[in-house]
Specification:
The complex is a heterodimer of chains A (193) and B (195). Chain A is mainly α. Chain A has one domain (2-190). Helix content of chain A is 81%, strand content 0%. Chain A contains eight helices and no strands. In chain A, helix 6 packs antiparallel against helix 7 (135-156). The radius of gyration of chain A is 17 Å and the shape is elongated. Chain A starts with a helix and ends with a helix. Chain B is an alpha/beta fold. In chain B, strands 5-6-7-3-8 form a five-stranded parallel beta sheet, with helices on both faces. In chain B, strands 2-1-4 form a three-stranded antiparallel beta sheet, with helices on one face. In chain B, helix 2 crosses helix 3 and helix 2 (83-93) runs parallel beside helix 4 (123-136). The radius of gyration of chain B is 16 Å and the shape is globular. Chain B has five helices and eight strands; from the N terminus they run βββαββαααβαββ. Chain B has one domain (28-54, 66-190): Rossmann fold (3-Layer(aba) Sandwich), CATH 3.40.50. Chain B has helices at residues 44-52, 83-93, 98-107, 123-136, 153-168, and strands at 5-15, 18-29, 33-37, 59-65, 68-71, 141-145, 172-176, 187-190. The chains are: A mainly alpha (193), B alpha/beta (195). At the A-B interface, helix 4 of A face strand 5 of B. Chain B: It holds the Pfam family ABC_tran.
Amino acid sequence: MPVIFFLLVATLFPFAIGPDPTILDRVGGGVLWTAALLAALLPIDRLVAPDAEAGVLDQYAVRGISEEAVAVAKIGAHWLGFGPPLMLAALPASALLGVAPEMLGRLEAGLALGTLGLASLAVTVSALVAGLRGGSALAGLLMLPLAVPVLIFGAGALDPIQNGGFYLLAASALVLLAAGPFAAGAAIRALRD
Amino acid sequence: MTASSLILDGLGCIRGGRVLFKGVDLSLDAGDAAVATGPNGAGKTSLLRLIAGLLTPGAGSVTHQGAIAFAGMEPALDRDVALAKALAYWARIDGGGAGDIARGLDAMALTKLAEVPVRMLSAGQLKRATLARTIAGPAAIWLLDEPGNGLDRDAQARLEAAIAAHRAAGGIVVAATHQPLAMDGAVEIAIGGAA
């Protein structure tokens, strides 16, 4: 689903902007990053809430599996489900947007890092809103500001002159990845009270 | 089965700023059973969740020896796969094998439904599947929340037989129910009631 959405944005954008290669080349990388961010948002209401409702999380807890371990597994699974497919989809998408081949390498490397952070953030946010009605709308509001650094530095990492954006992207993705399991674990525990 | 025991000491539960129950004392050894009774909303489920460690006690403490299995109101089975496969997921986590699943399915007369997707099962069949997961597991202490809900007469008899067999093997059973459930010599924990 996220991948189809990602490709949909990449297909629609040239129609809306027009086929001018110079404009597409300038905005293409940024568009793909925005699409990747929104694609990460799509499955957010399915990541934790169904398991919480079905009692699966309780069963893990009774078996002595820590909430943090559950969160790590969910982050890993979510990333596998949307990170690598998104990187694959970025190939046709960048062709559609006329992104230059040398920029594609930076985009792919940036996506590899950025999607890790986004996966961790998505699981955290979906654990936070799991017990709430209308949680998915709130999830979008909660996730977007926290995902903005990844978006800014991800688009910044496309800059061919310097690598600063790339390091900052790595740093912000790492922060999200490091904090995610603990925040999501605490949110899952809080769900029970 | 190694020696199992369950001791509740002055256990109290606070939910939503309200004291549900307090001063619950209980001491169970291998082969013992207890049944929590009380009106709806008295805190029977909360008591089981406290024992399972899913809630933090408002007062008192829970100490237990032996692993716990919690058969709650939610089946916790993947709705999109066959029943045997959904049970196999938990059996793998519990370190069990195909034999354990077959034992659980057989005990609750679900063998014929093993290949049916979980989402096709009726409420009573789901309850039996939840119990089958508990029976298939290695845990010494069974916490059963309304185990008789939606069970037909045959399934009820099978449940009582499974409980008796588990206790004979040195297990402990704590059930919360408002339905009659035949358990010889079970301690009754009356919750709420007059309070």
